[in-house]
Amino acid sequence: MAGTLNSQCYISEVLESVVLPYLQGLAPAIFQQDNARPHVARIFQRFFVNHQIELLPWPARSPNLPPIENMWSMIAQRLSQITPPAATPDQLWQHVEAAWSAVPQEHILSLFESMLRRVAAVISNNGGYSGY
């Protein structure tokens, strides 16, 4: 996205253009988002109600387990090693795609396979910090 992502832009360019058509193709579907302040704003809650989109309940201070966080960390590390850094959004996107493609499939598989350990760690810590 170019520019700043405000609430109207998020609704028109993300929710209406991408999320809504995708979810309609999956019906029935449940949309998941975290409790970040923008996600719980009334304007977005109204959007989901008006479009009859069911939201997955998400408790406050829930653990951040998705392995995608680890992937983004690896991508960021690879991007920081590229010199010169991207000068344009298009160059940045090319660098991100190249960094993403360079991650070995075995590593991605190991992230998926780690989910049982991640969930077990959260359960054993009563929902607290799990190290992941």
TrEMBL record:
Residues 14-81 form the Tc1-like transposase DDE domain. It comes from the Eukaryota. InterPro entries: RNaseH_sf, Tc1-like_DDE_dom. One of its GO terms (molecular function) is nucleic acid binding. Pfam families: DDE_3. This is Transposable element Tcb1 transposase. It comes from Trichonephila clavipes.
